[in-house]
């Protein structure tokens, strides 16, 4: 009798403890610790919660449960690569590395392993060229789209004429922060504005010199590519020198609630770019609340639902889930492989009708991925902060970017990468 | 007056103010090093923990809420009250005294007589422990710190300098407050060490541990005292820096700004920390203003260290540090 009990308990423990072999696995390389945790936590929560919603509400994707094993990177490139190596053997279908540094390291590895990388709004911009970067997808927007969208917004505000205007790019002094410089330089030549770049070194806790320079030069607009504590300090310093907040525009990584709240009321009017909707006024969030948060299955405590970075995690998870569904359709199997997942990403089509079905109507633009275009439409909206209301509001539609300027830059950069790595075009 | 000269004057003034903020962090290092010979690697984390505790208490946040909720399935976050700023500062100060007691009882007490490098390694361990413990206790979100300090441009200085030069200087009100607080803090520390029994005991321990012990001074009490004072200095630094950026784990990075200040001013001199901070503050701001544009900018991150390196070559003990001669 005792033996039977032990055997039964062992079997039960094994059933509980072992992973379900047929799970669709999307590892989450998260950073819940370290100096960037304030941004990493809501993103990881949003990503995990959406996948949990699919499991709880829909029984997974195509009837197959989804699992999201988390691996802590602390936003550290070496740890990120270790996480990739540690989790790829679990049957990983795709990676969302959540760091430009980790992405750069993983591009050759993941390509060799036949595992796609999905890097929405970060990573290597020229990976939008699917002809060269067969396993990297960065739709719906990248940093060069962002630079162009910011200038388009400024053009709208100035009747289409920027001749003689002064624009400052205040940026993190690293690869991520320098990404928009080539695009802005070209756009400056095209539209006749003067571009000044002002770098800030990590961590960016002291920015007095930069903001004194901005005060002296009196630029018409300041564009901002920051991350972490750099964001809060920059917004506070802008308020201190009384720089008009509605002329201060951050990239999407500089436009979260925790970036503006420390500056209080003075942050009102600050703008940021976004490639997805803001707030929780979409049906999908009611489902998340009901099936995930209220059911006690949320990755966090539920307080981040509807915040900017949480929404970005939800959006990224939705894209991967839709691509997995597409892959199941293409190949006629439910248990897809990473190679089939890559096909799903490459043939993904997001329509307004589908977004409405997902409870996300208007949350993002409609677009179609192709073999050559892994970058999507580059459609970006502008959001603006209202401190009194304590929320962001979209003040523009999702508009396109200047591909006449961006496409040659993408082509040149990806061609250089292809030549360096002896990559043959894949879309012939 | 030439425009560039006016700009340089403004940059110099702002550099002095930035230097005061660096000095506030450096002071904590000096106090502990002076009294115990320990280079406290964890001082930056003390700044974070002090500031987090202040905001947590002030806003009525439940400590370890995330842990409690995970274990018990509850959804508690706040007590539902807020605490007046002064009371919250007192509670945070008391928490730093408790931290000092814990450090003495559970770490330092067991390492008496060990080489300095062992004590230094222990403070690295403390840094890592607190790096995990502080967010576990108060969360990883950016916490807004509002203790009623004025921020933004000082109108009087702006108007006065505009009337004088035709160009209004920018000086942040918070920086002025920080300078006043730093001056009061240094005065209080000097008075404490010169005119109180505990202060004299502290100086005696700093001069010679064995001699101090032989005349009945309690080394344990002095260590708790000096770590408590360093904790209070960390709280002040946390208030100033946290008001600028919100309170978050990356506040610990301000310690990086204190290292060149210490190299310059000396590890054992309180006035040295202030003078070193001012030199670093002015130097890096002026260098960025004059040379930064020629070399791509963002020179502040390395300029202070290069300056400190130059000082190390010619005066290893720093400007005000004691020359250490060891018999071999």
TrEMBL record, chain A:
> Which Pfam families is this protein grouped with?
Peripla_BP_6
Q: Does the keyword Signal apply?
A: yes
Which interval of the chain is the signal sequence?
1-22
* Top-level taxon in the UniProt lineage: Bacteria
CDD domains for this protein? PBP1_ABC_ligand_binding-like (cd06334)
Task: Tell me which residues make up the Leucine-binding protein domain.
Answer: 29-387
Record key words, sorted:
Signal
PANTHER family recorded:
BLR6548 PROTEIN
The name of this protein is ABC transporter substrate-binding protein
TrEMBL record, chain B:
Annotated membrane topology is: Multi-pass membrane protein
Q: Name one GO biological process term.
A: amino acid transport
Q: Which Pfam families match?
A: BPD_transp_2
Q: Which InterPro entries match?
A: ABC_transp_permease, BCAA_transport_permease
Q: Kindly provide the name given to this protein in its UniProt entry.
A: Branched-chain amino acid ABC transporter permease
Sequence similarity:
Belongs to the binding-protein-dependent transport system permease family. LivHM subfamily.
Any keyword Electron transport?
no
Q: Which GO terms describe its cellular component?
A: plasma membrane
Principal cellular location given in the protein's record: membrane
Domain of life, source organism: Bacteria
List the subcellular locations: Cell membrane
Residue intervals passing through the bilayer: 12-33, 45-67, 79-103, 115-138, 176-196, 217-241, 261-282, 294-314
Q: Which GO terms describe its molecular function?
A: transmembrane transporter activity
Which UniProt keywords are given for this protein, alphabetically ordered? Amino-acid transport, Cell membrane, Membrane, Transmembrane, Transmembrane helix, Transport
């Amino acid at each position: 009798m005792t033996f039977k009990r032990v055997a039964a308990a062992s079997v039960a423990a094994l059933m509980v403890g072992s992973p379900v072999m047929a799970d669709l696995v999307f590892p989450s390389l998260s950073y819940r610790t370290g100096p960037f945790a304030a941004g990493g936590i809501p993103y990881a929560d949003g990503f995990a919660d959406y996948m949990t919603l699919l499991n709880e509400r829909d029984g997974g994707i195509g009837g197959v449960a989804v699992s999201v094993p988390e691996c802590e990177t602390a936003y550290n490139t070496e740890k990120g690569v270790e996480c990739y190596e540690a989790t790829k053997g679990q049957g990983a279908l795709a990676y969302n590395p959540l760091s430009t540094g980790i992405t750069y390291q993983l591009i050759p590895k993941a390509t060799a392993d036949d595992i796609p990388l999905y890097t929405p709004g970060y990573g290597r911009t020229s990976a939008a060229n699917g002809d060269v970067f067969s396993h990297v997808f960065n739709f719906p927007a990248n940093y060069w789209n962002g630079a162009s969208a910011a200038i388009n917004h400024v053009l709208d505000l100035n009747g289409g004429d920027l001749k003689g205007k002064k624009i400052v790019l205040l940026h993190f002094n690293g690869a991520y922060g320098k990404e928009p410089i080539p695009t802005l330089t070209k756009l400056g030549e095209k539209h006749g504005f003067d571009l000044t770049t002002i770098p800030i070194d990590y961590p960016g806790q002291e920015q007095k010199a930069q903001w004194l320079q901005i005060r002296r030069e009196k630029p018409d607009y300041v564009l901002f590519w920051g991350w972490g504590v750099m964001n809060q300090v920059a917004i506070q310093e802008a308020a201190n020198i009384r720089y008009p907040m509605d002329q201060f525009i951050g990239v999407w990584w500089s436009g979260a609630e925790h970036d503006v709240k420390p500056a209080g009321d003075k942050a009102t009017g600050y703008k940021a770019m976004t490639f997805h909707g803001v707030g929780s006024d979409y049906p999908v969030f009611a489902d998340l609340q009901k099936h995930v948060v209220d059911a006690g299955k949320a990755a966090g405590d539920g307080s981040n639902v509807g915040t900017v970075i949480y929404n970005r995690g939800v959006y990224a998870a939705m894209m991967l889930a839709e691509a997995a569904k597409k892959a199941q359709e293409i190949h006629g199997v439910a248990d897809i492989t990473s190679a089939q997942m890559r096909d799903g990403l490459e043939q993904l089509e997001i329509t307004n009708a589908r977004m409405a079905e997902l409870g996300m109507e208007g949350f993002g633009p409609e677009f179609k991925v192709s073999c050559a275009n892994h970058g999507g439409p580059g459609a970006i909206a502008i959001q603006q902060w209202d401190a009194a209301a304590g929320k962001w509001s979209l003040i523009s539609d999702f508009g396109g970017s200047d591909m006449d300027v961006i496409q040659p830059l993408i082509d040149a950069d990806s061609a250089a990468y292809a030549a360096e790595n002896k990559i043959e075009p894949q879309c012939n | 007056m030439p425009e560039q000269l006016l700009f340089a004057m403004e940059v110099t003034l702002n550099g002095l103010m930035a230097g005061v903020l660096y000095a506030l962090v450096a002071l904590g290092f000096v106090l502990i090093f002076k009294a115990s010979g320990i280079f406290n690697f964890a001082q930056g984390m003390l700044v974070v923990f002090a500031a987090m505790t202040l905001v947590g208490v002030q806003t009525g946040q439940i400590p370890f809420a995330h842990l409690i909720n995970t274990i018990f399935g509850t959804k508690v976050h706040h007590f539902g009250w807020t605490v007046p700023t002064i009371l919250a500062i007192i509670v945070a100060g008391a928490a730093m005294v408790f931290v000092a007691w814990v450090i003495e009882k559970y770490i330092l007490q067991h390492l008496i007589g060990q080489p300095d490098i062992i004590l230094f390694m222990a403070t690295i361990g403390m840094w890592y422990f607190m790096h995990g413990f502080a967010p576990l206790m108060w969360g990883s979100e950016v916490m807004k710190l509002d203790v009623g300090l004025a921020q933004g441009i000082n109108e009087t200085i702006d108007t006065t300098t505009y009337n004088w030069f035709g160009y209004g200087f920018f000086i942040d009100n918070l920086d002025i407050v920080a300078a006043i607080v730093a001056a009061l803090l240094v005065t209080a520390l000097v008075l404490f060490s010169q005119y109180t029994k505990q202060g004299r005991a502290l100086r005696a321990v700093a001069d010679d541990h064995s001699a101090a012990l032989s005349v009945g001074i309690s080394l344990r009490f002095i260590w708790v005292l000096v770590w408590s004072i360093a904790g209070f200095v960390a709280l002040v630094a946390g208030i100033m820096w946290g008001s600028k950026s919100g309170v978050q784990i990356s506040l610990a990075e301000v310690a990086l700004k204190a290292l060149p200040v210490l190299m310059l001013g000396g590890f054992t001199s309180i006035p040295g920390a202030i003078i070193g901070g001012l030199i670093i503050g002015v130097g890096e701001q002026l260098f960025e203003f004059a040379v930064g544009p020629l070399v791509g900018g963002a020179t502040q991150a390395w300029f202070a260290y290069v300056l400190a390196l130059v000082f190390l070559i010619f005066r290893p003990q720093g400007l005000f540090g004691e020359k250490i001669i060891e018999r071999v």
